[in-house]
Amino acid sequence: MVDYSPAMMTDMYEYTMLDATLQDGTAQRKCVFEVFTRHLPEGRRYGVVAGTGRLLEALRDFHPTDEDLKFLADRKIVSPQTIKWLENYSFSGTMRGYREGDVFFPNSPILQVEGTFAECTLLETLILSIFNYDSAVASAASRMASAAKGRPCMDMGGRRTNEWSAVAASRAAMIGGFKGTANLLAAQLYDLPAIGTAAHCFTLVHDSERDAFESQIQALGRNTTLLVDTYSIEDAVKTAVEVAGPELGGVRIDSGDLAQLAQRVRSQLDALGAGNTKITVTNDLDEYAIASLQTAPVDSYGVGTQLVTGSGAPTCAMVYKLTEREGVSGAMEPVAKKSKDKATVPGRKLAYRSFEGDLADCEHVVAGPEEALNSFGAPENWRNLLTTFVNHGEINDQFTGHQAIMDAQQFHAKTLSELPITAQSLMRGDPVIPTETTVLK
To answer: Which residues form the Nicotinate/nicotinamide phosphoribosyltransferase domain (predicted)?
Structure first.
């Protein structure tokens, strides 16, 4: 990734709050912060959690450098006493939440951060920037993969977003069910399958389409995928099979009426003896376009703009709110906002999903004082949704790296299969299961 200091991936007010609380004595109060969204994007049935692994990777390096401290001091953002405190900063608290690949709904406590106010408040922007974007992409990817009905979807969105987001999007797309990425940095960092062959400029730089195809076959072998819509698709397919033979791996169509063209190309390939040659389609696809191609003879999809922009929902509107803090007596006290339309539920949370048979029927959020939660007994058909990722500063490496992405992809597929079938509907509707919140005394 681009070399930057995670400790500066903050809003200024996180450091000014730290400075003020260090001076007034509340910085060391124990606190519980919670990440959740008040609503899903309009009409969506579920969201997909993604970003935990990236957060844990960033958390390892969340220590202000000497250069960071000099910047904060020179700009007089914090006092000299706070600069001294920051010299030894590292997160020593605990994080627990929903696993990557799990689904979430309004008010699902997807991440809880427990520690002192001082160490937790600095993480707000980092946490929200990662979870809001990654979960938006994973949610869109899940809808696209579901619409594809088993045909692989590939990430080709790196040129449709900024360079940092491109890598994050590739990772999140895999969690949502995609099978590969065109972004080599993402493939390198996370050991993801890389895909890609040639663009239209490759054909245009050659004196003829035949010359371009011969060059690509010579370099990449007969199993490559040839782009056939630079000029005439019919002529290109004929030339492609003449050059590569019936062993040609695939052709790609990037324009026009994709369903009609795929049908024509399939018939032409079969007539030319290339019955095993695959057809890939691209061209600004989203879940609705993919669904419209279900009956077309398409073998795979390349998705760009709509993937990396969350297919119309580029953020999940997640927030990071204080729900419990240590009082003057030393006891933990639930706290909450009461603002109009922005009220929060006080207290730390437990989260469960209940089932009727093999299908989920409700999300249950249980809030209250720690003692009440410790004695809470969940019914047998309720599944605990919270997993510990960081335990008193110790990061569980099980949730980072390549295998964590593959595990999250499999976990998502399993979780999605447990939701009512309407979860996979592309029609606008309410969340596929309700969320019930209980506050214990």
So the answer is: 153-339
**The pLDDT of residue 2:** 53
DSSP SS3 for 35: strand
Q: In this model, does residue 3 exceed pLDDT 80?
A: no
CA distance 253 to 250: 10
Helix, strand counts (H, E) of the chain = 16, 19
pLDDT tops 70 at residue 159: yes
Quickly count: other Cβ atoms within 10 Å of residue 135's Cβ. 30
Q: Is 97 exposed, middle or buried (0-12, 13-18, 19+ CB in 10 A)?
A: buried
Question: What domains are defined for the chain?
Answer: 6-137+313-439 (3.20.140.10), 147-311 (3.20.20.70)
Phi, psi at 302, each rounded to 5°: -110, 125
80 pLDDT tier (thresholds 50, 70, 90): very high
Q: How far apart are CA 370 and CA 324, in angstroms?
A: 10
List 332's β-bridge partners, or say none: 326
Cα–Cα distances in angstroms (integers) from residue 361 to residues 358, 432, 436, in the given order: 9, 8, 11
Q: How far apart are CA 366 and CA 373, in angstroms?
A: 8
> What separation in angstroms does the CA of 252 have from each of 160, 226, 227?
20, 6, 5
pLDDT of 421-441, one tens digit each? 999 999 999 999 999 999 998
Contacts of 80 (CB under 8 A, 6+ apart): 73
Q: What is the predicted pLDDT for the residue at 340?
A: 85
Percent of the chain with pLDDT over 90: 97
Helix/strand/coil for 115: strand
Q: What are phi and psi of 108, to 5 degrees?
A: -65, 125
What pLDDT digit, counting tens, does each position of 308-320 carry?
999 999 999 999 9
Question: How is residue 84 written in tokens?
Answer: 């001294």
pLDDT of residue 4: 83
